[in-house]
Design a protein that fits this description.
The protein is an alpha/beta fold. The chain has 3 domains: 478 residues, 3-Layer(aba) Sandwich (Alkaline Phosphatase, subunit A), CATH 3.40.720.10; 67 residues, Arylsulfatase, C-terminal domain (2-Layer Sandwich), CATH 3.30.1120.10; 36 residues, no CATH class. Helices cover 33% and strands 12% of the residues. The chain is built from 19 helices and 18 strands. The strands form 4 sheets. A 10-stranded mixed sheet has the order 7-6-5-4-8-1-9-10-2-11, sandwiched between helices. A 4-stranded antiparallel sheet has the order 15-16-17-18, with helices on one face. A hairpin with a 2-residue loop joins strand 15 and strand 16. Helix 10 runs parallel beside helix 13 and helix 18 runs antiparallel to helix 19.
């Protein structure tokens, strides 16, 4: 079937043959340079030296995983598979993404800024005034080309199993955006144990397989199922010796937070000391590992409660919530290990590049006390329970509170939706037996748009010009990370190259080691601040008054970013949780009033959690 953003596919085998010829007749593989179109980049030579054919590429995306949620970045959570990958490649400690899922995924898969790609925010949170503009629809536009399309055109098998969230109409599903085989969740999230929605915005959990509606199996658990499907897809063509690109976007650890009991049990008791103790311990481990500079200061978040004010039952419940979260992370890691074992059994591991990251920082909109009577009633209205004994299991609805979310992003400030480092800075591991550097940390500033050009460089595939498949397309703006991966350079952005970002009025601009950032209410104050995020990733020292000239220069660069990327001003009174509630009510305006009231009640805890203010 011809893909919506594919050119004529008949050339792909010729392209693959050409790539293989280049690799077999030269000593070094030279990834395509984005700086000089049509030339080969010497910076990537060392990376490809031992690769005899184009490598397989596995792109693994966690959902709402915080900066220090895995062991290589300082976590107490057991993640042996990811630790092994970190030991086999380069771990980036200054990598940034969008602060919520769909914009991050759009940039990850295209290398184009989210606004120009049509996904400035998730569609569930876009205001009606914004949706009038074609680039503010919250779905991936046809003015961009996915990395899957480019790889498929070069002869790769392309597979996807997991959350898509870039459009649900037939022409927008991944089966029409370059993926040969797919099983995809079109929504922002869903239950991990069965086919059911997690918020009342959706009438059902919308899963698709190869473009057709799909019914999940009875024994479904998301992380296990998605790895099973990935292995099935790879295995179906393993004999033809063509390379593959597998995109594996997990549901873990998006709400509802759920995990098998055997993964929860090891963490019972681990979190009994509370969120501050976990946050401090992660900070110390991250510093000892070299992930952050020593003596990084942390900012206390307004939404973090005092653990000591909770009674024994409340502490027990909060600790269980975090144990379920940790169990879900470890379950994901376990199933990543199954995929790795399969590739080793098929002699594919040595020629596979793994890229692991998260779409954004930790989610902090879980209610502060989901076990309270009103919250239990609200969950019951959706068919969920919040009982301590079964928390995380089938039929339960679990989250972590903003307080434990501050530990998940330790030592950073803010979390998902906001432009603070906790919302944007996440793990990035690039690993493979063919990489020249192993077990290395890099503090080079990197951005989510860098993933597509890096993947293309590994595959030896030329990025598109300003036209592709007979139509104009947005150019890739990201950078190939090959210079850092090979050790030939310590950064891919010079000190005077700016990278801008905006999401729902929360905004940032990165320039060298510096960042300006503004966060809207309720957690922010709407004021621009300046930080040296290389020395101060915790954003504890605002340098705006000390360096006013630098601040003004960066503000000017941000205004240019807004203009270049068609960033719209936010409607008066906009709030992302409020807009989600309004969009939900609008979706169900034909139903009885009681459904609308229940919708409001169900969403109320999320709003309250974001508006919560700790007494000074």
């Amino acid at each position: 079937m011809q893909h919506a953003d594919s050119p004529l596919g008949s050339e792909r085998l010729r392209h693959l043959s050409l790539v293989w010829t280049l690799l077999s007749t030269t000593v070094l593989v030279a990834p395509v340079s984005l700086a000089a179109e049509g030339s080969l980049s010497a910076t990537g030579e060392a990376i490809g030296a031992s690769i005899q054919r184009p490598p397989n590429i596995v792109l693994i995306l966690a959902d709402d995983l915080g900066f220090s949620d895995i062991a290589p970045y300082g976590s107490e959570i057991n993640t042996p598979s990811l630790s092994a990958l970190a030991a086999a490649g380069v771990s980036f400690t200054n990598y940034h993404t969008a602060a919520n899922c769909a914009p991050a995924r759009a940039m990850l898969l295209t290398g184009v800024d989210a606004h120009l790609a049509g996904v400035p925010n998730i569609p569930e949170m876009l205001a009606p005034e914004q949706k009038r503009y074609p680039h503010y629809r919250g779905v991936l536009g046809h003015n961009v080309v996915t990395v899957a399309t480019l790889l498929e055109g070069a002869g790769y098998h392309t597979y996807m199993a997991g959350k898509w969230h870039l459009g649900s109409t037939p022409e927008l599903l991944p089966s029409r955006r370059g993926f040969e085989r797919t099983v995809a969740l079109a929504d922002s999230g869903a239950d991990n144990w069965e086919q059911r929605p997690y918020i009342p915005l959706y009438d059902k959990a919308n899963w698709y397989a190869d473009g057709e509606p799909y019914q999940l199996p009875e024994d479904f658990y998301s992380s296990r199922f998605l790895v099973d499907k990935t292995i099935q897809f790879i295995d179906s063509h393993i004999a033809d010796e063509r390379p593959f690109f597998a995109y594996l976007p997990f549901q873990a650890v998006h709400i509802p937070v759920q995990a098998p009991q055997k993964f929860i049990d090891p963490y019972i008791g681990i979190y009994d000391e509370g969120w501050d103790a976990i946050r401090d311990a992660r900070q110390r481990r991250a510093a000892a590992l070299g992930v952050i500079p020593p003596n990084v200061e942390m900012v206390g978040m307004q939404t973090t409660e005092d653990w000591q004010t909770l009674n024994a039952d409340q502490q027990r419940y909060e600790a269980k919530r975090m144990a379920v979260y940790a169990g879900m992370v470890e379950a994901m890691d376990h199933h990543i290990g199954r995929l790795i074992s399969y590739l080793k059994s098929q002699d594919q591991f040595d020629n596979t590049i793994f890229i692991f990251t998260s779409d954004n920082g930790a989610e902090a909109s879980g209610p502060a006390d989901p076990d309270a009577f009103m919250n239990r009633q609200q969950m019951s209205a959706m068919g969920y329970n919040t009982d301590y004994e079964t928390l995380g299991l089938k039929g339960s609805f679990s989250t972590i509170s903003p307080s434990f979310a501050s530990a998940a992003v330790s030592p950073l400030a803010y979390y998902k939706f906001y432009a603070g480092e906790g919302g944007m800075r996440v793990p990035l591991i690039v690993a493979g037996e063919s990489l020249p550097q192993r077990g290395v940390l890099s503090d080079a500033f990197t951005f989510v748009t860098d993933i597509t050009p890096t993947v293309l460089a590994f595959a030896g595939v030329q990025p598109p010009d300003d036209r592709y498949g007979g139509r104009p397309v947005e150019p890739i703006i990201g950078r190939d990370l090959a210079p850092v991966l090979s050790g030939s350079a310590d950064r891919v952005y010079s000190a005077d190259e700016a990278v801008g970002y905006e999401l729902a009025g929360n905004a940032a601009l990165f320039l060298g080691d510096y960042k300006i950032v503004v966060n809207r209410k309720p957690l922010g104050d709407g004021e621009w601040r300046l930080f040296n995020i290389k020395e101060d990733p915790g954003e504890s020292k605002d340098l705006a008054s000390l360096h006013p000239a630098r601040l003004q220069r960066m503000l000017s660069a941000y205004e240019q970013y807004k203009q270049d990327n068609k960033v719209l001003e936010m409607p008066l009174g906009y709030g992302h949780i409020k807009q989600l509630a309004l969009n939900t009510l609008h979706q169900h305006w034909r139903t009885p009033v009681i459904v609308g009231l229940l919708t409001g009640l169900i969403l109320l805890p999320f709003l309250v959690a974001y508006r919560f203010r700790r007494n000074p």
